Every structure is written in C-alpha cells, then in structure tokens.
User: What shape does this take?
Amino acid sequence: MKAVRLVALLLWAWLALRPSRAASNDQGQFLIGVAASGGVNLHDAQFGSFPGVQSCCSSFGTQWTPTVGIAGIVEHDGHGLASIPIALQLRMGITQLGGTLTRDEFIGNVIVGDSLVRGTSRHQLEATLWAVSAEPLLRFLLPTHPAFSFDVGARFDWIVVARFAQQEQLTNPAAGVYFETRNRTRNTASGSIPTAAQFGAALSAGMSYSIPLTARWTLRPELRGSLGITRLADVPWHVHRIVAGIAFLHRPESIQPTVAPPAPIVEPPPPPLAFDVETRVLGIHRRSGDTSIVELPARRIERRSMVLPVVFFAPQSAALDSAAEQQIALVARAAQRSSAPIHLAPSTAPDEPDSLRLLRFRAVVERLRAFGVRVAPSPIEAPRPAQVPLAITDELRAVWIKTSDPLVLRESFAVLTSQPSVEVVLLPEVHSSAGPVRFDLTVAQDGRQTLHTESAPAVMRFELSPAQLLAGTPTAYRWTVVAMDTAGQTQQRSGYGIVRPEFIERDTALEELDVGGTLLLGRCAFDATTFEEFDTTLAAFVRRAARAGKTVVLIGSTDAIGSDSYNRALARRRAEAALERLGLSPQAVEIEVQIGGPHERTLYQRIARRGVFVRTEER
Assistant: This one.
C-alpha cells in the first residue's frame, strides 16, 4: 500500500510541474529521442512452481538474468524547484522481464541399475515475459554542472507476453534415471504462465550525463535501476532491474502558435530587428567549453603535533582507562599514514608480575587493530636501564610504541591570499530603423536573479559574486537580454556559463611557527640528551626559516624531577644537541630553557616535557 501511495505522489508531482500549452513556449522546449539499454534482472522468486503445474522444486530464490529494453522519449525542460532545474520526461517502450531460473536439489529416488541412490536434480524454468512500459520521470539537473542529472519516477507495465517452459533434468549420477519416469527428465511442461499478472508497476531512479553533439542533437549515457513493487504472477515473484544504456535526443525547431492575421494596415512594417550579443569573461585564466577557470593564489597551512609513543597503565593492571583510550586514539590517527607495521614493547614495574607484559600488549593491540592500524603480531623487548630511578618507576607500567618515523598528527588546508574578481561583458550588436533600442538584462547566479534595464548601451557588464569561488566550489550563471525598439519589435538572446576555482599553492607554512607558536622538535628519554624521536620535516622547515632571515628559538625542556639547577643545565644541553642536529649557526639561534612544574598532573604531561621545542621570530 505504501508503494502505491508513492507512485501516486510521483504522478501528481509530474502532472503538477507539466506546463500548460499556452505557457510551454516561454517555460522551456521539447526534446524527443530514443534510448536503448542492457543489463540484468534480479529475480526475487520465492516459489518453486506455478499453480496447477507439477514441480518438485522448493524455491528458486534470488537469481540474476540478462535483460534488454528500448524506449521512445519525450522531454520538456525549463521547470524548477527552488534553485534546482527540473525536466519532465515520459518514456514508452518495450521491457524484457523474463529470464532462465535454475535450481539444483539433492534427491534420494534415483535408480542406478537395481539400486536406489541419491542424486542431483536440476529444475530449469525459462520465463518469456515482455511488457509495453510507460515511465513518467522527474529529471533533476545539478545547478553547478547542468550536464549531470538524476531522475526518479515510476514504470507501469502492460505484460503482453507471459509464457514458460520448465523441465527437471537429472545431472548426477550420469547413469541414473528418475524413479517416477524411468527417464532422465521429468515434470516437463510449457505454455502460458498460469495466473500471470496483466499489469505491473515499479519505482525507478537513474543518473545520466548529457553530451551535446550539435546544436540540436544530444548524446546521453545513463545508468538506471528499478524496484518491482507488484508480482509477475499469483506467486511471490518480483523482478528488479539494473541497466546501462544510451539515449539520443533531438531538440526540434520551436513551433510558434498560429495567430489570426491582423487587420490590413496602410503603413508598411518596419524592417526586422537584427540583434546579437558577443560575450567576454574578464578575470579568468583559461576556458574549457562553457567552463571558465580562475586561478586563486593560496598558501598551504599545515598543523603538526608529535604524539607521545606510549600508553600507561595503573599499577598491577592491564585495563585501559580513559586517558589510555584517548592516547591510543591519537596514536591510531598518526599511524594510519604509515604503511609499515608498528611494534609494541610492553614493560612492567619491578613489583609487578612479568605476565602483565603480555596482557598489556594484547590490550593495546586489540584497540589499535580496531582502528585499522597494522601492528606486528609479537611484542619486542622494551629498553630498560640496569638501575631505574625510583622517581620514574611508575613510567615502567606501560606499552611503548616503536616506529621508523615519529608519530605526527597533521592537518592541512589552503588559505587564499587574494580575492577573485570575475566580470561578464556583453557586447550587443543591433540594427533597427525604428528608433532607439532598449535592453532588459536578466542575470541569475546560483539561483539568485537580478534585472538591469538600459537604453542603447554599447557595453553591458555584470560582476559575479565570489562567495562560491572562495568556498572552493564552482558558480553557475545565466543571462538573458531582450531588445525592444520603438516599433515594439523584440529579440531575445541568452547564454550561460560556469566559473570553476582552481587553487594555486604558492608556498607552505607551519601555522604553529608563527610568532609566539611552538612545536615539539625532538623528544628525549629521562636524564638524556639524545633524541628518541626527531621530526625531520619540522627540522627542514626550521632550516628554511633560518635561511629566510628569521630568528630560530630552541627551547630545551625537562620534567620537574630533580633540582632546578640540574634541570636547567640538562635543558640547555638538550637545546645544544638540537642545534648540532639542525646544523645551524649559533648566531642564528637563541636558546631558552624551561623546567617542569606543578602542572605535570599525569605521566603523559611529564614525559612530554623531556625534549626540545622550537619557534621562529621576525628579526
């Protein structure tokens, strides 16, 4: 019942949008054509036999069969819903709904010699079904690319041929026969399908792309599908279709309605108004058909953040708390860019059993694989000093993540460095002996329409709104110029176009390296000046900034463990190690130190302080 209501709603929409005869010449034009298609039928055949026809098959189930179809097309464009152009289309043609259904079944009444054995019986049903189809459609054109379109509608079938031929064939064993017939075939029957439906209906949808061949001929490849909503016979049997095809459409000359001849006039009519328009688009860089491309200079901004390669656990536990879950999610996001598997090195504190290593390894592996990260199947040995300071014993309750490159989160986007200015210039060419000519210019851009009225201008121009271009999406426009002289003669010309933006990236910048921003350049182990991870991409950017004359500030950092004087010296040694790794002149670099404080509330915040940060400043 719901399907019938949906079909009725589509018919109502199609009839409501159909133009009246009086208005059709103003609202759009007709197209006529033919479409041929081929594809597959999906038979949902939940039956084994027709009523009154003997068969031993239980059910054919779902099967695919080939299909073809041909249809004539009548289409009328020029309609719209909000800012979406719509065309009404009606298809009339021949549709193949039949096919060959087969089902193999195991039976136990096969005679081989004097023995009764099991065998395989193949039930084959050849259904010949042809229908005369009518299909009203609503075709929606993409405003930004009118060549693409999507359509929805319904298909109504008058089934004119409905015949069948069935047979059950013994396929195994090769020397056996049926018990009932003493032959290798049984239940052979053919004729008209009993209780076949005379009419049918289906919901349809599709997509197509229009390729103009000439001013009046159009080639339109299409992909279509339909969902059968009525049965083909008095059995549970529905047919759905998926087809690909091609349509040829012709736009005939507009036929003006005949008008009764006016009363005779004494004065001869004025010479006809001759009118044409030349179009130019300013502010673009190149054209491709009706599409203009405008190049927009942009800067690529990249945001970076190094992820700590560790997941910490509570004492005597292999369970993941909320902080560990968040850390695993960050590791997964950063590791998805790498094609090589990552390795895990679980560790335990001295007061914990060694069995926790494997349990912690499994907990982290399971969560990382759930995010789609490739993980080596076996753990590796975690590096562990001979004597572990008591202050960092809690850092041994962890799983360390080992990768060939540092784990870095990246976000990239383009920022325009200038705004586009695109202007359409119309140069009218008009010849009239009936006095001055007035022009009415109508412009529609992305569904917004404006009207300009001018008297005999040499040039008409309008500037396109850059909002869509700045957002990175194309903008479509259509213009119409109506010329009218003092004798009341009118001529109309129209055109349309698409402007597509193309970002041209001039350079790349790391956003956090602006004045006041810092990034983690390298991470060190506890009480060490060698780098366990070093961001080589960030290092290359720092070298370029130094060559460009900027001041590079290296900030050596430590955690809060130990005395302030010792930590300041350790932080400076770490900054000097980074300076040596960068290979920069000491005169181009300033060194600062910072040590941890009371804000280190978690183990992640503690180890994040062990390393070298960097920022750049204008001199």
